[in-house]
């Protein structure tokens, strides 16, 4: 389960359940947490530590679909560091199991086809590669929002509808080396994996 900002009622409802939670740091809060470690510590204490271990936090997601051209893009990685440090310094044992990540759009890739050719756009490299290195160093996955619909409508008819909506009935539509793809979603996810390999993080997991 994922919520895009801390919500007291939702967090209370998750008490003593087996539901794992991804909790977002809203984009507008990121610059404050990036520039002030004490603010990051307070945010973690208020929104995470005070609910553990009753709530099973899995990820703290620092930013949703921040693009390199966004004014806050330079604040994402520093905020991730500060959130990570706040979790590491917490005496709460459950905090050690919480991973810090961020969510990207597949738009950060300059190449997505064939999937094995997936690569981040040159304009995104300076933004995303340091984040990828942080994730790899901390054993955290990269979260990716994958939208086959938008890829379909932007393909000018080159992508078949059944391929975009899991409607091929198991038929392989795209061949890429030894791999075959029955739907666009899996092809797009693999293009992210290929981009991560080219960015020096071949073992980084993707959660889509």
From TrEMBL:
GO biological process terms, semicolon-separated: carbohydrate metabolic process
Keyword Hydrolase in annotation: yes
Family from the record: Belongs to the glycosyl hydrolase 17 family.
EC annotation from Swiss-Prot or TrEMBL: 3.2.1.39
Catalytic reaction annotation: Hydrolysis of (1->3)-beta-D-glucosidic linkages in (1->3)-beta-D-glucans
Annotated InterPro entries: GH, Glyco_hydro_17, Glyco_hydro_17_plant
Listed Pfam families: Glyco_hydro_17
Record-given protein name: glucan endo-1,3-beta-D-glucosidase
GO molecular function: glucan endo-1,3-beta-D-glucosidase activity
Coiled-coil intervals: none
UniProt keyword annotation of Chaperone present: no
Record keywords: Glycosidase, Hydrolase
Broadest EC class assigned to this enzyme: hydrolase
């Amino acid at each position: 389960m994922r919520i895009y900002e801390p919500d007291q009622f939702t967090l209370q409802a998750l008490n003593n359940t087996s539901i794992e939670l991804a909790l977002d740091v809203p984009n507008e809060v990121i610059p404050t947490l990036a520039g002030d470690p004490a603010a990051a510590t307070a945010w973690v204490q208020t929104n995470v530590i005070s609910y553990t271990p009753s709530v099973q936090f899995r990820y703290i997601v620092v930013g949703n679909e921040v693009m390199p051209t966004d004014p806050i893009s330079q604040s994402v990685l520093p905020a991730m560091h500060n959130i990570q440090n706040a979790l590491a310094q917490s005496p709460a044992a459950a905090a050690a199991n919480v991973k810090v990540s961020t969510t990207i759009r597949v738009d950060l890739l300059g190449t997505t086809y064939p999937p094995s050719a997936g690569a981040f756009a040159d304009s995104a490299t300076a933004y995303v590669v340091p984040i990828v290195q942080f994730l790899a160093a901390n054993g955290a996955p990269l979260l990716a929002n994958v939208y086959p619909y938008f890829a379909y409508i932007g393909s000018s008819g080159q992508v078949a509808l059944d391929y975009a909506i899991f409607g091929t009935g198991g038929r392989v539509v795209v061949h890429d080396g030894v791999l075959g793809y029955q739907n666009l979603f899996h092809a797009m996810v693999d293009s992210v994996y290929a981009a991560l390999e080219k960015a020096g993080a071949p073992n980084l997991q993707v959660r889509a």
